[in-house]
Amino acid sequence: MKSFKVKILLTIMLCICGNYVHAQDFDVIGLKLGMTVEEVHKVLKDYDVESNIKEHRQYYNYSDGVEHFKTDDFVYYIDAIKRKENNDYLSIFFSPGPQGGRVVAVTRTLENKAQPPTRGQYLSALKKKYGQPTSEDISTVHWDFPAGKIQCLVGAIGAYQPTHPSILKKIYSANVGSRDGIFHNSKVKSLSDCASYLTYSMPSGDNSPVTEARAIMVDVAGIANGELAANEWVDGLAEQARKAREAKGEMPDL
To answer: In 3D, which of 53, 94, 91, 90 has the Cα closest to residue 73?
Structure first.
């Protein structure tokens, strides 16, 4: 983010945030957008992956112009693995900072090595759970939600990954990084207009065995708001530190 360095801390097991109305619409094995860290741990426990969880933490560096400081760390994302005949790999990402801590994205890689369903069977199960998709091609199916929202991202839906350094350039065409930015999609007037989405990618061909399926669920507004809020948070800390340093400054003898 800007010129600030970001460091990721790994620990074992343990907002100015998005519009979490999205959280009521879609889920992946019970994981919903807008959930807290504690709620995610409960879902993972119920899904029987409690012993295969890693929390990844993050903090930001900032400076007063002379000394360097770091913010308190917070949960950036959680990795979880359910190891059985068909392994299920999950990553759950959270909005940053003191007013964050809400799920803004979920990724999933589901292996189906034992008795894999066909693509047709997999699609049928997905449509039964989520309804008719917004779009579908030979390799990917995707849903925008909730109804009435607008897809704000440019480029292929699902191409964005929450590990990417920034989502803002995919949303704004000018004044990127500002809450007064100009949206790529002229129909969008504010981040609250932006749809969340879910995509599943799998092999082409209705009769193809789906030995691996990849999913990503993203709260576009939540990630963007979280990134903007983190920038504002760290900028504010740097400004406070600068003023505190200047207040202690001593005039030189001349």
So the answer is: 94
| Dihedral sign, Cα of residue 198, residue 203, residue 208, residue 210 | negative
- CB distance 220 to 41 below 8 Å: no
pTM of the predicted model as reported, rounded to 2 decimal places: 0.87
Condensed to tens digits (0 to 9), the pLDDT of residues 13-55 reads: 223 333 344 434 799 999 999 999 999 999 999 998 877 899 9
| 207 backbone dihedrals φ, ψ, rounded to 5° | -95, 5
Cβ-based neighbour number of residue 178 at 10 Å: 12
| DSSP codes, 108-119 | EEEE--SSPPBH
Domain range summary for the chain, segments of one domain joined by +:
6-246
d(CA 18, CA 97): 13
Rounded CA gap, 116 and 251, in Å? 75
